[in-house]
Task: structure prediction
Amino acid sequence: EIVLTQSPDTLSLSPGDRATLSCRASQSFSSNSLAWYQQRPGQAPRLLIYGATSRSTGIPDRFSGSGSGTDFTLTISGLEPEDFAVYYCQQYGSSVRTFGHGTKVEIK
Amino acid sequence: QVQLQESGPRLLKPSETLSLTCSVSGDSISASSWSWIRRPPGEGLEFLGSIYNSGKTYYTPSVKSRLTMSRDTSKNQFSLKLTSVTAADTAVYYCTRGWGSLDYWGQGILVTVSS
Result:
């Protein structure tokens, strides 16, 4: 099973700041099959990025994904108030799909 | 717009069977693949299993011996059955579209296992 380690656990930032979230895999997996999700309190997760770099439908371009192999990054350029939430990465390149434990982006 | 809605009992006793149904609108369950995810209190997301558009299923090894997924194409629904539940199965359960990245999610249903 591929373990995804997200860092940091919590990111304290102000609106307008740039957020950089990391997701590191215990082993590489196929085809950059990595997704990022946002979960706001009381809501279901929302798909932001798939294929490591492709934005899902309707996702603002301030969200961007990068990386390959075992190291992946989600960048939010210019935090909006609605962006303060928990972010999860997920790999689907192996038969056992796994999620990271999440990074909470909180208001400083 | 694709919408998913989970339904089922919210309180179970240990050793009982958890049965959840996901009702889908805006897409045919025969045309796509569908998955169940859960989030235990205070923990992260766990991928449970998928039912593909072919009808074949995949279950995560940690629950494989207890999990069955099925679908009813006439009702455009798919279901989860998890046997012999314990307190560790207490979680918010989500039904989703996809088997890789998951682009549509239900709102989730909190299922509590307690004696």
